[in-house]
Design a protein that fits this description.
Helix content of chain B: 40-55%
Strand order of the largest sheet of chain B: 3-2-4-5-7-6-12
Structural class of chain A: alpha/beta
Order of helices and strands of chain B: HHEHEHEHEHHEHEHEEHEEHEEHEHEHH
Strand order of the largest sheet of chain A: 2-9-10-6-5-4
Order of helices and strands of chain A: HHEEEHHEHHHEHEEEHEHE
InterPro entries (chain A): DH_E1, PDH_E1_Alpha_Subunit, THDP-binding
Largest sheet of chain A: 6 strands, mixed
Oligomer: heterodimer
Distance between the termini of chain A: 44 Å
Enzyme class (chain A): oxidoreductase
Shape of chain B: globular
Keywords (chain A): Oxidoreductase, Pyruvate, Thiamine pyrophosphate
Structural class of chain B: alpha/beta
Number of strands of chain B: 14
Number of strands of chain A: 10
Number of helices of chain A: 10
CATH class of the largest domain in chain B: Alpha Beta
Shape of chain A: globular
Number of helices of chain B: 15
Radius of gyration of chain A: 19 Å
Largest sheet of chain B: 7 strands, mixed
Strand content of chain A: 5-15%
GO molecular function, one term (chain A): pyruvate dehydrogenase (acetyl-transferring) activity
Cofactor (chain A): thiamine diphosphate
CATH topology of the largest domain in chain B: Rossmann fold
Chain lengths: 285, 366
């Protein structure tokens, strides 16, 4: 009983703290630097790609593992709840894509902004949301991050720079460029990551927003999370050119292995430096 | 260019003796003291934006031709020179893109004023207006507020055809999360635009191209930089006791002209300038209908699912026992706006239509 109560209290804490208090997993505070090679090289479009060597530490490695494993378990649990009809409406799962959320967080701060579409549960966790806020929102409870009024597709955490959670495919890209616009206007020296899928990559508003971002040198980083399906339609039937990192044409692009958390971390660090100095960059994972 | 067309039409022989602009000027000068300063709606809007940009560095302008061209209708004249390219942005012709960028900037805490060259073009961006702007405050349970203003000329101009003459008041007014304003006079234009820019919620500000050049008297209070008109309050432009006429934007001028004509026939009409379409000032409308017992609603847009339809249903719900006659709805004819001048005239409400409707409501028509 005490165990259950303690686990319930754990749900209220940000997940990394919650898990570190569980005695079963090994933890380490070692910050000895380790150099890792990404499994695949980066490919650049109109830009020299970053090096494949990524610096990390044992502590960071364990954090990556815990965070990604937690996200996977959370999404599988959400899947079961959805099939049990305890989650209503839509439930878009991020299992398989955890490396993007976790790698990105390792490269940026909470003052940088992230905006994504409706596959947002793990991005929310990565930005500091708790499991309780997540499940409560999915199940329509007032302790949810949007007090039960948003649902699966409308998680937000403005104090950590997470601007949602958007149900309309592609809308988040101009919104993300708008966040970048405001960051530049306010001289904050921060960037915005606008995440979208390979389906949204074909949206006209992406090109409208990217054109303006390029004209005005906005610190906007467009990140295409390519899972090779746009809703139910396979990529080869929807996109004439699946080289999404090249879609920016005059905007530099980077192709990254999204399954490799170190590659993601390196790419996001590289993109942030680029965006602050040179304006928008497109990346495809 | 549109100004030139209007001048040519007005100087054309065979045109009705009292043109629209002349009519409004006559009525406006009759309604107000001649001691006040005169100000055009265009200058009213320009001064409102100027003062709000000066007062709050978070306010910025974005739209097509707002900067170097000085504004497609010169509403933003001089603002690029005064505030620089960091506050006034000329955009490419990509409404979906720049409306989305504006909403994103508003999420972050800036206060964008986004101009659509006409509200017809807002349809290209309507997903961002409705789904990204209007609904975000509710969906995020208050975390995200969207202090954005979308403004531009709405409804018919002169001879611009179907795709450039549609009134979208009813479209936006049906959406929770938006505020929808429609000024008539220069006082309205200044006060409502200032209120809109200061408002923490998304506001659709529906101007009228044909009113831009009209002058109205403005008092010292209106010219003060802190002047503001409350959102959600209508204005009684003319008091009366026999029939209530509700209108907004250009139709207020027509309603006032109709009231003059009706007065000669012994019908005292009360003209309500709605000012705010959402939230609608139902209380003022109810009080007026309870006084007069007869109602005529006037709008330029189409009748079906229009502003008049909402006012009618609302009044029937609240003041049914006070009504002495069926409510009369005057609206644009149910066709896409034709181009030919005579057909355009027939497609829009005219003063005589309002007069006839008021007489029907008083059981005085033939």
């Amino acid at each position: 009983m005490a165990q259950l109560t303690r686990r319930a209290t754990d749900l209220l804490k940000p997940f990394s703290v919650a898990l570190s208090s569980t005695r079963l997993l090994t933890t380490t505070t070692s910050t000895t630097p380790i150099t890792v090679e990404t499994s695949l090289p980066f490919t650049g479009h109109r830009i020299d790609p970053p090096s494949r060597s990524v610096e990390t530490t044992p502590q960071e490695l364990m954090t990556f593992f815990r965070d990604m494993a937690l996200m996977r378990r959370m999404e599988i649990a959400a899947d079961s709840l959805y099939k049990a009809k305890l989650i209503r409406g839509f439930c878009h799962l991020y299992d398989g894509q955890e490396a993007v959320a976790v790698g990105m967080e390792a490269a940026i701060t909470k003052k940088d902004c992230i905006i994504t579409a409706y596959r947002d549960h793990c991005i929310f966790l990565g930005r500091g949301g708790t499991l309780l806020q997540c499940f409560a929102e999915l199940m329509g409870r007032k302790d949810g991050c949007s007090k039960g009024k948003g649902g699966s597709m409308h998680f937000y955490k403005k104090d950590s720079g997470f601007y949602g959670g958007h149900g309309i495919v592609g809308a988040q890209i101009p919104l993300g460029c708008g966040l970048a616009f405001a960051q530049k206007y306010s001289k904050d020296e921060t960037v915005t990551f606008a995440l979208y899928g390979d389906g949204a990559a074909n949206q006209g508003q992406l090109f409208e927003a990217l054109n303006m971002a390029a004209l005005w040198d906005l610190p906007a980083i467009l990140v295409c999370e390519n899972n090779h399906y746009g809703m139910g339609t396979a990529e080869w039937r929807a996109a004439k050119s699946p080289a999404y990192y090249k879609r920016g044409d005059y905007v530099p692009g980077l192709k990254v292995d999204g399954m490799d958390v170190f590659a993601v971390k390196q790419a996001c660090k590289f993109a942030k430096e680029h965006a602050l100095k040179n304006g928008p960059i497109v990346s495809a994972y | 260019m549109l100004g030139i067309i209007r001048q040519r039409v007005a100087s054309c022989k065979g045109f009705p003796a009292l043109t629209l602009e002349q009519g409004i000027r006559v009525v406006a000068s009759q309604a107000y003291s001649s001691n006040s300063k005169q100000m055009t709606v265009r200058d009213a809007l320009n001064s409102a934006i100027d003062e709000e940009m000066s007062a709050d560095p978070k306010v910025f302008l974005m739209g097509e031709e707002v900067g170097e061209y000085q504004g497609a209708y010169k509403i933003t004249k001089g603002l690029l020179d005064k505030y620089g390219p960091e506050r006034v942005y000329d955009t490419p012709i990509t409404e979906a893109g720049f409306a989305g960028i504006g909403v994103g900037a508003a999420y972050y805490g800036l206060k964008p004023v986004i101009e659509f060259m006409t509200i017809n073009f807002s349809l290209q961006a309507i997903d961002h207006i409705i789904n990204s702007a209007a609904k975000s405050n509710y969906m995020s349970s208050g975390q995200i507020s969207v202090p954005i203003v979308f403004r531009g000329p709405n409804g018919a101009a002169a001879g611009v055809g179907a795709q450039h003459s549609h009134c979208y008041a009813a479209w936006y007014a049906s959406c929770p999360g938006l505020k929808v304003l429609a000024p008539y006079s220069s006082e309205d234009a200044r006060g409502l635009l200032k209120a809109a820019i200061r408002d923490p919620d998304p506001v659709i500000f529906l101007e009228n191209e044909l009113l831009y050049g009209e002058s109205f008297p403005v008092s010292a209070e209106v010219l003060d930089s802190s002047f503001c008109v409350p959102i959600g309050k209508a204005k009684i432009e003319r008091e009366g006791k026999d029939a209530t006429i509700t209108a907004f934007s250009k139709m207020v001028g027509y309603a006032l002209q109709a009231a003059e004509i009706l007065a000669k026939d012994g019908i005292s009409a009360e003209v309500i300038n709605l000012r705010s379409i959402r939230p609608l000032d139902r209380a003022t409308i109810y009080d007026s209908v309870k006084k007069t017992s007869r109602l005529v609603t006037v709008e330029e847009g189409f009748a079906q699912h229009g502003i008049g339809a909402e006012i009618c249903a609302s009044v029937v719900e609240e003041c049914f026992d006070h009504l002495d006659a069926p409510i009369e709805r005057i609206a644009g004819t149910d066709v896409p706006m034709p181009y030919a001048a005579n057909l355009e005239r027939m497609a829009l409400p005219q003063v005589e239509d309002i007069v006839r409707a008021a007489k029907r409501a008083c059981y005085r028509s033939n």
